[in-house]
Amino acid sequence: xxxxxxxxxxxxxxxxxxxxxxxxxxxxxRRLTEAAGAxxxxxxxxxxxxxxxxLPDEPAGPPVQLLSVDGAMAPLVGGVWAxxxxxxVGEVVAGADGPTTVxxxxxxxxxxxxxxxxxxxxxxxxxxxxxAGTVVxxxxxxxWCQGFVDLHRPDAVRVLDYPHxxxxxxxxxQAGFGPGTAATSAWLGEQAxxxxxxxxxxxxxxxxxxxxxxGLGAEARATVTGVHxxxxxxxxxxxxRAFAAAGYPIGSGCVESANxxxxxxxxxxxxxxxxxxxxxxxxALRCLLANGRWDAAWPGLWAALRRSRRRPAPAPSPPASxxxxxxxxxxxxxxxxxxxxxxxxxxxxxxxxxxxxxxRGLALHAKP
Length: 368
What we know:
This protein has helices at about 1-5, 10-20, 25-55, 115-120, 120-125, 145-150, 160-175, 180-195, 200-210, 220-230, 240-245, 255-265, 275-290, 295-310, 355-365, and strands at about 65-75, 80-95, 100-110, 135-140, 155-160, 345-350, 350. It is of the alpha/beta class. The protein folds into three domains: about 1-55 and about 275-310, no CATH class; about 60-160 and about 255-270, Nucleotidyltransferase, domain 5, CATH 3.30.420; about 160-250, no CATH class.
């Protein structure tokens, strides 16, 4: 099960045989791994339901905590791609070269934003998100990311991922000066530097000027105007100089690394396509590995597996009644249904027997 969470199923049998001498096939590895993962999903969902019902005290969180969410695409059966949402939680500590995030842990599910936010409560509770001194929420501008922060720590310091903001500036530069031109590189470098060092107002002004460039096509103008609106509505989230001075991270590299570590390293191998129902079980086991909690979680997981195996199987359907024997065929008219008796012999040793008509005649004429 642990090997199945870490390696492609087909690679597990030779590794297991090498170290233990136990021979299994890849299908057995797949079946056992998915069963263990499904049990872990159930254990975690039950834990969240208990938290919601009992409302226990929150454990103490760190002075500064990072909370970051993002999505990564996973291939499903039938050529479909679906977004796996991942949470990364860590403790932010000051370092000589700036803030560093340590003690990272992760939670991933293939589900909608509302359900993901609810299921992630187990991880945010464990990490003390509600009681942390300051929570820094670094994410891109997707609405579901901000909704997640609203749910778990609405007073968090919200930071628009700096590389994400620069990516939008790059779109405006290409629209205004053309892809790959020297003017594009020069303008983008200048605005990225200004944005990073506290001159976000100047960046917004530069976007306004670029959108008003004479001769700029309608489509290019719409792109530049869109970037201006995107950053302007997130003005409080692009104060990168102030964030850095406070010792806060300004990039979402932790959750992007989580996408690779938890999701892509196992679910996006060559030729892999997953049934939707089997994605969350594997993600649950992957998070146990990445979070260093496999040994701690194993007793509860094993107990859940044993309970699922002890559940009585559904009662079998009663056997079908045997067909009734066909009624005997009706005898032909004038014939008896009983087998015919052998005819008695009439002459034995040259003498008539009692059944001979002569004898019967003599009997009829005999005197009383």
